[in-house]
Amino acid sequence: MVAEQLRATGGVWLSFDGTNIWLDPGPGALVKALSSRPRLNPKTLDGVLLSHRHIDHCNDINVVIEAMTDGGFKKRGVVFAPADALGEDAVIFRYVREYVQEVQILTEKGRYELGSLKFEVPVRHHHPHETYGFNFYWRGHKISWVIDTKFFPELLKFYDGEVLVLHCVRYQAGDKPWIQHLNLNDVRTFLEALSPRLTILTHFGRTMLTAKPWVLAEALSQEFGLAVRAASDGWKLQLQEVFPEESEAA
């Protein structure tokens, strides 16, 4: 998927009441941001958030940090990352870390703040290397983001946000148990247990793309009577669409 770029791998730009943070800037992240309409300027970033060290999530993190800090001439921003992204065989270069104001290590049950944004790391995922998902808090609302993981029941307890983002890589579980990713039946388990206000499916593998995730999302919406959407490259979500009681966009 990464090599063929069937879907872009640049991660997600998040903005919460003026606080900008880039989640998992993978291959092509900087090019995608600078060519987007409207253009996303990395000099306006307040931080970079890395869930784990796999290349489809971290490939562009060093160049994004350089861009955020104007090539290191303006010491600014905070980087959040697991410890194994910073130790031996680090994916974030040591010299680049000197460009930012602070590097914070993500740990299970850790709580963090950046500007107006508060978020937590509820549990370590079942995935190769140290991997975490996130609960973001915005104006009293909870947005849960389930990054790459094999399903395990405790996920339902830890990720119960009103908005639920699921990395649904596989269409079916298949016969390769060592591939630790969610599949469509796992999505059904989340929907049945939690009934989120909005569920967003993303991070699709080849089998999901072949099955047309936008069609699958609509079918799930009909099956459960819930709002389910499949993300696409360049898609922008305003949180006021989900929470119309909030008068300003996130």
Supply the key terms.
single chain; 250 residues; Metallo-beta-lactamase, Chain A; eight-stranded mixed β-sheet; five-stranded mixed β-sheet; 9 helices
What this model shows, in words?
With 250 residues, this protein is α/β, with parallel strands linked by helices. The protein folds into two domains: 1-109, Ribonuclease Z/Hydroxyacylglutathione hydrolase-like (Metallo-beta-lactamase, Chain A); 140-233, Metallo-beta-lactamase, Chain A (4-Layer Sandwich). The protein has nine helices and 13 strands. Strands 6, 7, 8, 9, 10, 11, 12 and 13 form an eight-stranded mixed beta sheet that branches. Strands 1-2-3-4-5 form a five-stranded mixed beta sheet, with helices on one face. Strand 8 (134-138) and strand 9 (141-146) form a beta hairpin. The protein starts with 11 loop residues before the first strand and ends in an 8-residue tail after the last helix. The mean pLDDT is 94.
- Architecture of the largest domain in CATH? 4-Layer Sandwich
What is the CATH domain class of the largest domain? Answer: Alpha Beta
Helix content: 10-25%
- Please, what is the CATH homologous superfamily of the largest domain? Ribonuclease Z/Hydroxyacylglutathione hydrolase-like
Could you spell the SSE succession in H and E letters? EEHEHHEHEEEEEHEEHEHHEH
Q: What are the segments in which pLDDT stays under 50 over at least 5 consecutive residues?
A: none
Rounded to the nearest angstrom, the radius of gyration is 17 Å
CATH topology of the largest domain: Metallo-beta-lactamase, Chain A
Shape: globular
Major sheet size, sense and barrel closure: 8 strands, mixed
State mean pLDDT (0 to 100 scale).
94
Structural class comes to: alpha/beta
- Please, how many helices? 9
Instruction: Report the count of strand segments.
Output: 13
Number of domains: 2
Strand content: 25-35%
Euclidean distance between termini CA atoms: 31 Å
